[in-house]
Design a protein that fits this description.
This protein is mainly beta and 423 residues long. It contains five helices and 29 strands. It has a domain of 38 residues. 41% of the residues are buried.
Length: 423
């Protein structure tokens, strides 16, 4: 029995997106009914061995799909640990703990609290080299970031939160207060929402560059500059934000999403620029851009809408903005997902199907072959801001897959070694 949502169902969902309140309630009711009809008698299914870190009753997770929790040399894993149930909204007064697990010694070697986090991206923890990682925190009334050395325990405070980093050289960031006001799934709750006046302040907010040596922070792109590229009249009365900044592999460019809202309806655009803010270019502007990843310094994979070919995964050439359908007739039926690329292979997940199972796939671009890695159940107890997308990530060597899942009733970080199948 096919448990995937079909084209008609996705079309209806797109129509309902014009009425967000109605869509949310109708969607949840429809999902409950479907689950009762299609539910499985198992919580996960895979031919691979699954590993996790035992944290007792506490829940664990890493965060987003754009970074791997394991460092380049494969020795350490960073993750978040929560004392409170992740079925509840994050708390500004209860921290999560950044943990480092030594795979060789098989024990925890580092722990530090963070008050700036959410369930989707955690505290934006990411490795900057094999011994140091960075994460966001809230300290003395301000959002900051901390570079932690797992060997010495030394902590270096950066007077600004980060979004994406290039090694231990620099970071790009955004206004997390604006993000909290317009997309709380990815924001932090330690400060009050922006006022309407602040939301419409576009000249002094946007994308910022942080130098890790000088600690200097400067705005490289304002929201006003971003709006002027491919400007539409309807943007003038909209509220605006940037999100999902991703630096290219060589550290020379970055992509990001510009999202604006008119009467609660969202419009998405994909743009790229040099890391100093120059050469800003609009790549996609057909209302919907979802999840992206870098393939190399000139190519992006993204799930987005093309008015001629529809909602699909596309491979985009950033030099001329041309795009081609990825995996046509092979991966189309699974809809949106979170892609990660490694050595001709695209790892991606799905949203819950009618049986509330989410699936992991690897698509080999060189052979056009698709392999299902596994399926994992997500209860409707995890929903909206507390949802647990799989957010899969390759290890740097491509031999492991890391993902967050709730198929055992608690949010946990898991990993699979692709060279080790279950007996």
């Amino acid at each position: 029995m096919n448990t995937n949502f079909n084209v008609t169902e996705r079309y209806i969902a797109n129509l309902l997106s014009q009425f967000p309140g109605l869509k949310s309630s109708a969607k949840r009711l429809y999902q409950k009914i479907n689950y009762l009809i299609y539910k499985k008698n198992y919580s996960y299914q895979t031919k691979y061995q699954i590993q996790t870190i035992d944290s007792g009753e506490r829940e664990t997770f890493f965060g987003y799909y754009d970074k791997s929790p394991i460092c380049n040399n494969g020795k350490y894993i960073i993750y978040h640990e929560s004392e409170i149930s992740t079925k509840k909204l994050p708390s500004a007064t209860v921290p999560v703990f950044l943990k480092v697990y030594d795979l060789v010694k098989q024990k925890e070697i580092f722990s530090h609290e963070s008050y700036a986090y959410n369930w989707q991206q955690g505290s934006k923890a990411q490795w900057v080299n094999d011994e140091e990682f960075i994460f966001n925190n809230f300290d003395k009334g301000e959002y900051v970031s901390i570079i932690a050395n797992v060997k010495t325990g030394n902590l270096k405070k950066i007077p600004s939160p980060i979004y994406d980093c290039f090694k231990n050289q620099f970071a790009l960031t955004l206004n997390f207060e604006r993000l909290m006001s317009l997309r709380p799934d990815y924001g932090y709750r330690n400060k009050p929402p922006l006022s309407n006046d602040d939301l419409f302040e576009l000249k002094n907010d946007g994308v910022f560059f942080i130098d890790f040596v000088s600690l200097k922070k400067e705005m490289i792109l304002s929201l006003q500059q971003i709006i002027e590229v491919g400007h539409k009249i309807q943007m003038d009365k909209a509220t605006h934000k940037v999100n999902h900044i991703m630096v290219s592999p060589n550290g020379e460019k970055f992509m990001f999403l510009h999202r604006y809202f008119i009467n609660k309806k969202r419009f998405d655009r994909l743009l790229i620029a040099d890391v100093d803010g120059n050469n800003l270019k609009l790549l996609c502007d057909d209302e919907m851009v979802s999840h992206c990843c870098w393939v190399d310094n000139k190519t992006i994979i993204s799930y987005l809408r093309d008015k001629e070919f529809g909602d699909r995964f596309y491979r985009i050439n950033i030099e001329d903005a041309s795009k081609e359908i990825l995996g046509e007739g092979i991966i189309d039926k699974y809809g949106d997902g979170h892609p990660t690329f490694n050595n001709y292979k695209v790892l991606f997940d799905t949203y819950p199907d009618k049986s509330r199972m989410k699936h992991l796939f690897i698509y080999d671009i060189s052979s056009s072959k698709l392999e299902e890695i596994g399926g994992f159940y997500e209860s409707l107890s995890y929903y909206g801001e507390t949802r647990s997308d799989l957010h899969p990530r390759f290890s740097p060597d491509g031999e492991k897959i890391f993902f967050d899942s709730v198929h055992e009733g608690k949010r946990r970080l898991y990993w699979i070694n692709l060279n080790s199948q279950s007996k």
